[in-house]
Amino acid sequence: MKVAGFGFKRDVTVASLREALIAAGGAEGLAAIATVDDKADGCALVSLARELGLPVKAIPVERLAGIATPTQSERIKDAFGTGSVAEAAALAAAGRDARLVATRAVSKDRTATAAIAEGDGE
């Protein structure tokens, strides 16, 4: 299962989310998109999911904590317990033995990040 994980600011636009996803490798072959649970119903993310015909997987913040990511942001680590919400959400949603196929990519306006992981889906 291939999943795109997203981290984003509350005022993000669909265009910024789309730009980050394209920079991470695009939507081809994705089975879902994922983010931290308190942002999973964000208007821009829901709109992008609808546009792509994909479900949104809401990952509890507790599940993100402790997931090792190649990208490290001290601000994100302090808030979420992991170095990158996008990378951790992608890994958590892709299932056991998930691996990143694209590390965090950032939109030009810096309001969205995306990463892609593949796993067994369980």
How would you describe this protein?
The protein has 122 residues and is an alpha/beta fold. It has a single domain, classed as 2-Layer Sandwich (Nucleotidyltransferase, domain 5), CATH 3.30.420.180. Helices cover 34% and strands 25% of the residues. The chain has five helices and five strands. It has helices at 14-24, 43-52, 61-64, 74-80, 85-94; strands at 2-8, 32-36, 56-59, 99-106, 112-118. Strands 3-2-1-5-4 form a five-stranded mixed beta sheet. Helix 1 (14-24) packs across helix 2 (43-52). The longest helix has 11 residues, at 14-24. The radius of gyration is 12 Å and the shape is globular. The model has no long low-confidence stretch (mean pLDDT 94).
| Topology order in helix (H) and strand (E) letters | EHEHEHHHEE
CATH topology: Nucleotidyltransferase, domain 5
What share of the residues lie within helices?
25-40%
How are the strands of the largest sheet arranged?
A: 3-2-1-5-4
What CATH architecture would you give?
Answer: 2-Layer Sandwich
Intertermini distance: 9 Å
SS element count, helices: 5
